[in-house]
């Protein structure tokens, strides 16, 4: 099983971008998304440092809501 985290793209420099989720920023590779039109403000799923899929803002919010529910049940 793998886990991808929804993050918002803040800036792009060729095949690298700065992404943010809940105040945490990470450098993310866009190498696996060649051919996709990714712009600052877009949301992507990030897995082990690579953006793997572009998603909507509502899908990102729904994913975070589910993560919060899971953590709430475990904690």
CATH class: Mainly Beta
Second-tier CATH architecture: Roll
Q: What is the string of SSEs from the N terminus onward?
A: EEEEEH
Number of DSSP strand runs: 5
Number of helices: 1
Largest sheet: 5 strands, antiparallel
The gyration radius over C-alpha positions equals 12 Å
Structural class: alpha+beta
Could you characterize the architecture of this molecule?
This protein has 75 residues and is of the alpha+beta class. The protein has one domain (5-74): SH3 type barrels (Roll), CATH 2.30.30.140. The protein is 24% helix and 43% strand. The protein has one helix and five strands, in the order E-E-E-E-E-H. Strands 3-2-1-4-5 form a five-stranded antiparallel beta sheet, covered by helices on one side. The model has no long low-confidence stretch (mean pLDDT 94).
């Amino acid at each position: 099983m793998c886990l991808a985290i929804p993050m918002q793209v803040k800036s792009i420099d060729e095949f690298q971008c700065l992404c943010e989720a809940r105040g945490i920023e990470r450098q993310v590779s866009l190498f696996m998304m060649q051919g996709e039109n990714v712009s600052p403000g877009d949301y992507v799923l990030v897995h082990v440092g690579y953006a793997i899929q572009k998603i909507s803002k509502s899908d990102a919010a729904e994913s975070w809501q589910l993560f919060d529910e899971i953590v709430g049940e475990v904690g």
